[in-house]
Amino acid sequence: MGGKILVTGGTGYIGSHTVVQLIVAGFSVVLFDNLSNSSRSVLDRIVKLTGKHPTFIKSDIRDRAALQNMFKNHSISSVIHFAGLKAAVESEAHPLKYYDSNVSGSVVLFEKMARADVQTVVFSSSATVYGDPGYEQYREDTPLAPINFYGRAKLIVEDILQNIKKSQPYWGIALLRYFNPVGAHVSGMISEVPSGVPNNLMPFIAQVAVRKRTKLSVFGGDYTTPDCTGRRDYIHVEDLAAGHLATLNRLIDSDDDSLITVNLGTSLPYRVLERVRALETASGKLVHYKL
């Protein structure tokens, strides 16, 4: 498979870290991103980190003409699909926006892949497809019951890919359900820098530490944990990127036609205030918070 790897959402948080690892591993990469929650400056940082200039196309995956031209002009062999909106709370207020971007956009992408005879895709799904059934740990066979529209949109795309696999078994498909990405590249040159109010804990803590925000609101102080705050599974973004690279290599090298579904996490839960204390220790900055 000597073609290029198309990375949708390639300038985003997880996408950019994955692009760096792909280039270091020897892949040629095409980034396709509308920059709705990222910056073009990420491209310059990718170049500095890798010494390579990946192709970048500023467009939306719902743009059929743009996708068709991209597949026509580039020899794409595989796709890693990150592009999509990702704020669970926002999805509850704007469900149509999320279904349009995350579901309709994915359908357009898969249509154009099929037309271009590209049949290998790694889909960036989410552990939100499991909902909140109260299990201590989540396995790939844990019942799926998303509790917000973001998670439901992810599950719909998973179902679409399952249907494609059933009707066209020669497709190579992987569904990666990951938990809570945190961290940054060891160089510090790429990291999670949301355009608006952070939807994830660690960038919010960091913004409080540098006084961009006055305090962190910690929701829930009555959990059955040592400090009474909720706990979650956090995975370093570099480990997450490595998981995407390993999965892509598996799809490329594998002769079987199974659909791969994998949870990406650590199985090590951390409490909210543990994360706050850890950043305070690492940065020497005080993080104000309120329960």
Order of helices and strands: EHEHEHEHHEHEEHEEHEEHE
Q: Do you know the CATH topology of the largest domain?
A: Rossmann fold
Query: Which value, in Å, is the CA radius of gyration?
Result: 19 Å
Report on the biggest sheet.
Answer: 7 strands, parallel
C-alpha geometry: globular
Count of alpha/pi helices: 9
Helix content: 25-40%
Strand order of the largest sheet: 3-2-1-4-5-6-10
Distance between the termini: 52 Å
Strand content: 15-25%
CATH secondary-structure class of the largest domain: Alpha Beta
In the predicted model, the low-confidence regions spanning at least 5 consecutive residues are none
> In the residues, how many domains can be counted?
2
CATH 2nd-level architecture of the largest domain: 3-Layer(aba) Sandwich
Structural class: alpha/beta
Short synopsis of the structure:
With 291 residues, the chain is of the alpha/beta class. The chain is built from 9 helices and 12 strands. It has a 7-stranded parallel β-sheet, sandwiched between helices. The chain has a 3-stranded mixed β-sheet with strand order 7-9-11.
